[in-house]
Design a protein that fits this description.
Blueprint lengths: L6 E12 L2 H16 L4 E8 L3 E3 L2 E13 H12 L3 E6 L7 H49 L5 H8 L3 H13 L3 E4 L2 E4 L1
Antiparallel strand pairs: 1-4, 1-5, 2-4, 3-4, 6-7
Helix pairs in contact: 2-3
Length: 189
């Protein structure tokens, strides 16, 4: 069987987790609709279970039976749609020629490199967002102190930041010598 022309029938399990329940169920349906638009595969059957609550989140699961054109597209399906698991139903045996297997591995590596680049880019963007958010919060505290909002309760109300989180920033600003703690609250140094 030539691997790139062979149709492969798989059972795929998809799982989406989030909140609220209606949102999770809607997103799973949209995700399946998106999969159905892929020209390299055909969804033969689908079973969608209602979302169930687990650890304050909702999990919705779908089981799809899909026919996929070739091993390359099977790998693409796995990387692009990230099923929780797949089970190859047909064919019973898949044989690779060296040339086909080399191409398959290189295609898989290319897709993994793209995923790796996206993850690294997201990580960098996340770090930049954290740094900027920290600066915004620190500056917000300094502005509040300038306007004499100097108690933890007052700053929590003004910023919407929980007390334990706000205290971390106050401690950092104290260590840097930017603010001082007094009996009635905090003040600029």
């Amino acid at each position: 069987m030539e691997t790139e022309k062979a149709h492969i029938r798989v059972r795929a399990i998809l799982d989406i987790v989030g909140k609220p329940k209606e949102f999770v169920e809607k997103k799973l349906k949209e995700y399946i609709d998106h999969i159905k638009e892929d020209v390299n595969l055909m969804v033969m059957d689908e079973k969608i279970s209602p979302a169930i609550e687990q650890d304050n989140y909702f999990s919705a699961i779908a089981e799809l039976e899909v026919v996929i054109k070739g091993v390359q597209n099977l790998v693409g399906f796995c990387i692009d749609y990230m099923p929780a698991s797949i089970d190859i139903i047909k064919p019973d045996t898949i044989t690779f020629a060296q040339r086909d297997f080399t191409g398959f591995v290189n295609d898989m590596l290319g897709k993994l490199h793209n995923v790796d680049m996206a993850a690294k880019q997201s990580g960098s963007e996340n770090e930049l967002l954290k740094k900027n958010m920290t600066s915004v919060i620190r500056n917000n505290i300094l502005v509040l102190l300038k306007f004499k909002i100097n108690t933890i309760d007052g700053m929590c109300k003004a910023t919407g930041i929980p007390e334990d989180e706000l205290k971390r920033f106050l401690e950092l600003l104290k260590k840097e010598g930017r603010i001082v703690e007094k009996e009635e609250g905090y003040d600029l140094a």
